[in-house]
Amino acid sequence: MTFSSLLKQLSHIALLQAFAPKASLIDPATVEVTPATQEKFGDYQLNCAMKLTKVLGESPRQIAEKIVSALHALPEAASVFTHIEIAGPGFINFSLNPNFIAKKLMSQLHDPRLGVSPISKPLKVIIDFSSPNIAKEMHVGHLRSTIIGDCLARILTFMGYKVLPLNHIGDWGTQFGMLIAHLKTALPEITETTIPAIDLSDLVAGYRTAKQRFDEDPEFKKHAQQEVVALQNGVESSRRAWEHICTISRKAYQTIYDLLEINLIERGESFYNPFLGPLIQELEQKKLLSISDGAKCMDLEGFTNREGENLPLILQKSDGGYNYASTDLAALRHRIQEEKGSWLIYVTDAGQSLHFQMIFTAAKKASFYDPQQVRINHVPFGLVLRADGKKFKTRSGDTERLIDLLQTAIDKAKQKLIERNPDMPAMELETAARTLGLNAIKYADLACNRLSDYVFSYEKMLKFEGNTAAFLLYAYVRIRSIQRKTHVNIPQLLTEQTPLLLEDPIEISLGLLLCQFSEVLENCIQELLPNRLTDYLYRLAEKFHLFFHQCRVEGSPKEKSRLLLCEATAQVLQQGMILLGLKPLDRM
Length: 588
Ligand code: ARG
Description:
This protein has 588 residues and is of the alpha/beta class. The chain has helices spanning 3-19, 53-56, 60-73, 77-80, 98-109, 140-158, 175-186, 200-216, 218-232, 236-260, 273-285, 324-337, 353-365, 402-420, 426-447, 458-461, 469-486, 490-495, 505-515, 517-527, 531-550, 559-580; strands spanning 33-35, 44-46, 81-87, 91-96, 124-128, 162-167, 265-266, 289-292, 295-298, 313-316, 343-349, 375-381, 384-386, 454-456. Among the domains are: 3-96, Gyrase A, domain 2; 174-266, no CATH class; 268-381, Rossmann fold (3-Layer(aba) Sandwich). The protein is 53% helix and 11% strand. Helix 12 packs across helix 13. The longest helix has 25 residues, at 236-260. The radius of gyration is 29 Å and the shape is globular. 40% of the residues are buried.
């Protein structure tokens, strides 16, 4: 059990004892214990006294005093706290007994899950992330979605959820008619059985020309429209061209996923195509559709456009074609009704928030799910800006390719490593540069609160100080080298029942921080904010350096106990890095 939940439990018992029978009316959720905002306030705080004045009919201060004396009277009080203080109008601050912290840390050291208990029921989470569009380059927005989504998937898996990571690739829609019509003349091999030797950049260029022809040439436009119909009806040559286009694009995305070690199951928009007709039928039967300018729409309350007029959700265009929204509504229904997902998560840029809010509202209105049973979250994120504050261009031709971006980070990491270790052997340098460069890209993104815009700066992300991947990696490398230097066999030390003594204030606060790993992960998942984890690991690395600075490890009379503290830190750092999708380095 986490310290927060234990203290919450004890506080609730104290409250019941101090204020029986009135206290039985209190909702246990109001008794919230959180880590102290500043170390000078102790370790944890309870702020419910202010909220309870009405129910209990006493002043916050009186309430706090009664809770505190009831807490002191509990049999476990002495072993759990050293002191409990009332501050300000009625805040209750707890300081934990160092022996109590040490005991928990000892059990964490022997637990492969590091004190993180898995959720009681392994609920199925379907997380939709990355999701680039066929025949287009993957852009920085997709990179953000990929990195954030992968991190959330890793944490959820570690917490015991059954995770299905889906890549909702944009592989269907009228734009393919245009591209296929163009390629049929410009690159006739596109319809043959063997795949033509072109790559994604050729497709991107082809797409640009196709768009131009579509806008300028009515004859071509007609062809393009016929191609859409041919594709829908499964005409072999069109179908084959489409498959080749997908395969070529997929190959480019896979290079990026391989580099970043991302696991995703592709289930693109085309997968839901067979469900679109039945979806419309069902909504019609439920009398939820109306016609507006020939399009089939669903009226939703609470959504208006800039002019303040109602904004309907268009689900079938007047020409009978479907759109992004129809596919997403069908996908949502499929994920709940067929996949039996209990929690759906969508990671995209904040620009799509309105779209998802409308989809979720429509799904509720159509009774596709019971909000009591299924949780659905859009996880939006801000823009990616260049170091000069400008937006990365996305749609125009001269976008920087993602793969080049990643390669630049690797090259720059290599330079850094050469500066620090001029004699690093070439082979080691290659691997280390790749690890450091990609770690830096991932970490910088995750460490920025996803709701803010994110400034992409190689220089900042590759720094060795501050809240960066290198700083974290360095703390870890440092611990491993301390352990090597002492020649103490750590696995053996762990079996020896060596006591872990937390005496020095910095030892105590490092020990406490280590025990908070599981609370941090819980928060991370509750708020779906990976930066909760990076912030924590950064604080941990900083605290560790401070400890190492203030407390001698090697040759100290407390060497063994301190080595255990080092080991506990290394374990949490390592697991934390795995959850962020980072890879360790042996030296740097
Ligand atoms: N392909 C979309 C884009 O590039 C993202 C898809 C996100 N997922 C979804 N279910 N709509 O913007």
